[in-house]
Amino acid sequence: MSHEAYELKAEAREQVGKGSARAVRRNGKVPAVIYGDKQPPLAIALNYKDVFYKIHGGGFLTTIATIDVDGKKIQVLPKDFQLDPVKDFPVHVDFLRIGKDTEVNVDVPVHFINEEKSPGIKRGGVLNIVRHEVEFHCPANAIPEFITVDLTGTEIGDSIHISAVALPAGVKPVISDRDFTIATIAGSAAMKPETEEPTEAAEPEAAAAPAAEEK
């Protein structure tokens, strides 16, 4: 798991819609909905500060939580959230209800290690990250905190593909039809040889003066 599981207190909301959501926010709470696991959606209201700190604390979308709705505890995974475009505070959250065998698609961060053991980087190469996150399909109770890419032995010109990454059991990339690239080791601009300036074409010789007219 990416972060420690946590619990949020919530109240059930009888009314839904934009007007109801605005009223919830005026009362210092965040409107949210719990859906999935073949059960009807449940509209709830959460404490604003609790949600704010969880969203901005990192790992929000990859950590299972328990929501206590008026005494009933529901296990969920945050699936989406909306922030105010100006003030950056949470305005709505969607939670997926987690059942015994629930599997999910989730974006997992990519971490790179052992840059100091990469001959290519030592010689001035640059780590070019193609994917900072990779979407995986996995059991909801086995979401990895991150995947690790080991750069030991990589040379300039090398590409690191998903097949080179050790994944936990049950974790599979959503993209399954190709061995996609996660990163490359590129040569830096300073390593590129200077290209010679093209030699200017010689000025055409002046045309020979016309022969003097015969008198």
UniProtKB/TrEMBL annotation:
Region annotation Disordered: where it falls in the sequence: 188-215
A matching Pfam family: Ribosomal_TL5_C
GO cellular component, one term: cytosolic large ribosomal subunit
Domain of life of the organism encoding this protein: Bacteria
The Large ribosomal subunit protein bL25 beta domain, residue ranges: 103-187
UniProt keyword terms in alphabetical order: Ribonucleoprotein, Ribosomal protein, RNA-binding, rRNA-binding
MF GO annotations: 5S rRNA binding; structural constituent of ribosome
UniProt record, GO biological process: translation
Coiled coil residues, start to end: none
Residues covered by the Large ribosomal subunit protein bL25 L25 domain: 8-95
Keyword match Acetylation: no
InterPro entries reported in the protein's UniProt record: Rbsml_bL25/Gln-tRNA_synth_N (IPR020056), Ribosomal_bL25/Gln-tRNA_synth (IPR011035), Ribosomal_bL25_b-dom (IPR020057), Ribosomal_bL25_C (IPR037121), Ribosomal_bL25_long (IPR001021), Ribosomal_L25_dom (IPR029751), Ribosomal_uL5_bac-type (IPR020930)
Biased composition (Low complexity): 204-215
Similarity remark: Belongs to the bacterial ribosomal protein bL25 family. CTC subfamily.
Described function: This is one of the proteins that binds to the 5S RNA in the ribosome where it forms part of the central protuberance.
Quaternary structure note: Part of the 50S ribosomal subunit; part of the 5S rRNA/L5/L18/L25 subcomplex. Contacts the 5S rRNA. Binds to the 5S rRNA independently of L5 and L18.
Name of the protein: Large ribosomal subunit protein bL25
Provenance organism: Rhizobium loti (Mesorhizobium loti)
Organism lineage: Bacteria, Pseudomonadati, Pseudomonadota, Alphaproteobacteria, Hyphomicrobiales
